[in-house]
Design brief:
Distance between the termini: 61 Å
Transmembrane segments: 12-34, 46-65, 85-110, 122-145, 165-190, 202-223, 243-264
Family: Belongs to the SAT4 family.
Subcellular location: Membrane
InterPro entries: Rhodopsin_dom_fungi, SAT4-like
Number of helices: 12
Oligomer: single chain
Order of helices and strands: HHHHEEHHHHHHHEEH
Organism: Xylaria grammica
Strand content: under 5%
Length: 361
């Protein structure tokens, strides 16, 4: 063990910085889904799994750097250190490939919540299915390119490499870029026909367009994939390691921004409502949601469990949130709106309830 080389040190700083920024969105997302919306779904599991694999990747690269990652093989005194450096790196790269898959699946579940038509769902999931197939093939080709498998990281044993993993790896990298670009543009098409506030459409579409940044990082990574067959693997793959992490980080940030929208809005609402009276201030929701906008957007559009926590009824059992309609002495008030200053009839109350229901759909 010889310590961390200069270029490896720079790469590691970049990796941990990317992980730190991504962690901010992971925590905000968790808080939003668990505390603000009290809804947690499959997309959240995939998102968190991707981040956990990102952390493991960084740890493995840190270990690899201690044994020689970032150095010329000729500058590493111990062959055992060379073997460990290569082994930790290729395991880390494999795990991050899986993390990239989970991140894209999370986006797929996110977009699925925005659509009802079968053709839209097919358009969402087809690129991911193709990408996952290429991912599996490229991973298997890489790990099975040498016989025995241990020859991949230990050249002191008898063996040979009969398969070039570069072409299929580049193809898989190109498919990742395509998926990033597809998921950057397709949400704009979906949002155009959705009954949602223009501001929310812009926020969601713009954040999802961060996939363009992920695609740029993925393009650079695809170029660097040509070096996975290099005999000087620990030195030549430093850039590949960084760009791979950058692609995943950009993807997770892009999907993290719209998920946290209810938290952003509730925070802003609390800041601007200080010192002023609001009908929500004494209610159970504490202005955390604006019915027909934030609540619906958070609970149904983005996704999550089909039930509310703390024994609340399923959204399908009650077409709209009745708590948004407050009846006080035959006077109706709605959370976030001015109270009605006149008595209203039961038919008007029912009509107001139907309006709230329509906003959810």
């Amino acid at each position: 063990m010889e310590g961390v080389a200069g270029n490896a040190s720079t790469a590691l700083v970049t990796l941990w910085a990317l992980a730190g920024v991504t962690l901010v969105f992971v925590l905000l997302r968790l808080y939003t889904r668990i505390r603000v919306l009290k809804m947690y779904g499959t997309d959240d599991h995939c998102y968190n799994a991707a981040f956990m694999l990102f952390l493991i990747y960084n740890i493995l690269l840190q270990l690899s750097a201690e044994y020689g990652f970032g150095r010329d093989i000729s500058d590493i005194d111990s062959l055992d250190d060379v073997n460990r450096a290569i082994l930790y790196e290729i395991i880390g790269q494999t795990l991050l490939i899986i993390g990239n898959f989970f991140a894209k699946v999370s986006i797929g579940f996110f977009l699925t919540r925005l659509v009802t038509k079968r053709r839209h769902k097919v358009a969402i999931w087809t690129p991911v299915i193709i990408f996952s197939c290429l991912l599996v093939v490229s991973t298997l080709v890489f790990w099975l390119s040498c016989q025995p498998i241990a020859y991949l990281w230990n050249r002191r044993i008898d063996g040979h490499c009969s398969i070039d993993p570069v072409p299929v790896a580049v193809l898989a990298g190109a498919s990742s870029v395509f998926v990033d670009l597809w998921y950057s543009g397709f949400p704009w098409y979906l949002l155009y026909s959705i009954n949602m506030a223009l501001r929310e459409k812009i926020v969601i579409g713009s954040s999802m367009s961060l996939g363009v940044v992920a695609a740029a990082c993925g393009t650079k990574r695809a170029v660097e994939l040509g070096k996975i067959g290099s005999p000087n693997y620990p030195k030549d793959t430093v850039s590949l390691v960084v760009w791979h992490a950058a692609e995943l980080s950009a993807t997770m940030i892009g999907i993290g921004v719209p998920i946290c929208l209810p938290f952003y809005r509730s925070t802003i609402a609390r800041v601007f409502s200080r010192g002023s009276h609001s009908c929500c201030s004494s209610e159970r929701h504490k202005c955390k949601e604006s019915d027909g906008e934030m609540g619906v957007f958070g609970n149904f559009t983005i996704g999550g469990t089909p039930y509310a926590s703390h024994g609340q009824s399923s959204p399908t059992d009650d077409k709209f949130d009745r708590s948004a309609l407050n009846l006080r002495g035959n006077r109706a008030t709605t959370c976030g709106y001015h109270s009605v200053d006149r008595s209203i009839s039961d038919s008007e109350i029912a009509e107001l309830g139907r309006d709230l229901e329509a906003q959810q759909y």
